[in-house]
């Protein structure tokens, strides 16, 4: 169920209240700043908001420099025998190992075709269904969750899907180190962990620093499709994407769910809990 417009306005108010000035009809919020130096002239409350939404560059006890957002907690999760077998038997065909070097996507898929990145596919049921619906496109699907990786390999083998490649790694590092600029035609991030508690918001994927790393990977004309069942995160997503002038929203705010996206497992769970669903589809200019 979508939220009525009047309710959205109330929920947006706290974020809009932090912003100063609208440019070209867009509200520029603190989190939309491109340069850290831009923060220097901001009032303290804005600097705090920016800092809370920024990557965590804390230094661990060993003194090594820690890279940005850690958007997941590795759950143990039970890998079934069938999931493990699907990995063992199919990884050479479907799996891509992490490397600290650019990935040749055409070689990985064995063809030239539009390439879509999916971050956080969970159990992979929606990923497999989308790949089945769009056989002319290739999907690089990344998650850290072992049973999900096994499940997606199993679905691919069962359904004879050849247009997915699976990675089990932190997508932030993959984006940083393996994807060439202008190599993607689309990006799917469906129901990323909402990190409900305020002190955990810094773990959310959809924040300006990560989106700034993601967007150069998209071709001009490529799209970003996000979905969430957490209203306050939907508002944040809209604010963050609106902060990038190279992106144009395909809708006034939230988009109708595109035909290619089936209900995901996490979405179904959210609906059972009475949550709404918000899709956002932006195109790179
Ligand atoms: C809430 S679940 C949603 C899964 C699926 N998209 C769905 O809608 O059912 C979020 C998923 O993102 C994955 N994830 C979170 N951060 C990630 C990262 N940095 N790299 C790869 N996967 C990540 C988690 O392991 C989890 O499977």
TrEMBL record:
Its EC number is 2.1.1.33. GO terms for cellular component: tRNA methyltransferase complex. InterPro entries: SAM-dependent_MTases_sf, tRNA_(Gua-N-7)_MeTrfase_Trmb, tRNA_methyltr_TrmB_bact. Pathway: tRNA modification; N(7)-methylguanine-tRNA biosynthesis. One of its GO terms (molecular function) is tRNA (guanine(46)-N7)-methyltransferase activity. CDD domains: AdoMet_MTases. S-adenosyl-L-methionine binds at residues 118, 143, 170, 193. SUPFAM superfamilies: S-adenosyl-L-methionine-dependent methyltransferases. The keyword Transferase applies. Keywords: Methyltransferase, S-adenosyl-L-methionine, Transferase, tRNA processing. The keyword Transport does not apply. Substrate binds at residues 197, 229, 264-267. It is an enzyme of class 2 (transferase). It comes from the Bacteria. It catalyses: guanosine(46) in tRNA + S-adenosyl-L-methionine = N(7)-methylguanosine(46) in tRNA + S-adenosyl-L-homocysteine. It holds the Pfam family Methyltransf_4. Catalyzes the formation of N(7)-methylguanine at position 46 (m7G46) in tRNA. Belongs to the class I-like SAM-binding methyltransferase superfamily. TrmB family. PANTHER family: 3-DEOXY-D-MANNO-OCTULOSONIC-ACID TRANSFERASE/TRNA GUANINE-N 7 - -METHYLTRANSFERASE (PTHR23417), PENTACOTRIPEPTIDE-REPEAT REGION OF PRORP DOMAIN-CONTAINING PROTEIN (PTHR23417:SF14). This is tRNA (guanine-N(7)-)-methyltransferase. It comes from Neisseria shayeganii 871. The gene is trmB.
């Amino acid at each position: 169920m979508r939220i009525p417009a009047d309710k959205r306005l109330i929920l947006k108010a706290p974020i809009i209240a932090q912003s100063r000035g609208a440019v070209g009809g867009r509200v520029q919020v603190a989190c939309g700043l491109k340069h850290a130096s831009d923060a220097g002239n901001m009032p303290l409350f804005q600097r705090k908001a920016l800092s809370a939404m920024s990557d965590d560059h804390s230094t661990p006890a060993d003194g090594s420099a820690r890279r940005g957002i850690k958007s997941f907690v590795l759950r143990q999760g039970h890998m079934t025998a069938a999931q493990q077998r699907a990995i063992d038997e199919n990884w050479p065909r479907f799996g891509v190992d992490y490397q600290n070097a650019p990935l040749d996507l055409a070689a990985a898929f064995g063809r030239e075709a539009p390439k879509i990145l999916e971050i956080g596919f969970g159990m992979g049921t929606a990923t497999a269904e989308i790949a089945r619906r769009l056989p002319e496109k290739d999907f690089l699907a990344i998650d850290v969750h072992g049973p999900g990786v096994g499940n997606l390999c199993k679905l691919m083998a069962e359904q004879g899907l050849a247009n997915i490649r699976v990675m089990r790694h932190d997508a932030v590092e993959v984006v940083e180190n393996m994807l060439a600029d202008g190599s993607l035609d689309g990006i799917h991030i469906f129901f990323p962990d909402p990190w409900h508690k305020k002190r955990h918001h810094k773990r959310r994927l959809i924040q300006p620093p990560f989106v700034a790393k993601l967007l150069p990977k998209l071709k001009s004309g490529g799209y970003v499709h996000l979905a969430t069942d957490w209203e306050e995160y939907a508002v944040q997503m809209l604010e963050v994407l609106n902060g990038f002038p190279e992106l144009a929203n395909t809708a006034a705010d939230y988009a109708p769910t595109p035909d290619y996206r089936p209900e995901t497992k996490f979405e179904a769970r959210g609906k059972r809990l009475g949550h709404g669903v918000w899709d956002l589809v932006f195109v790179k200019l």
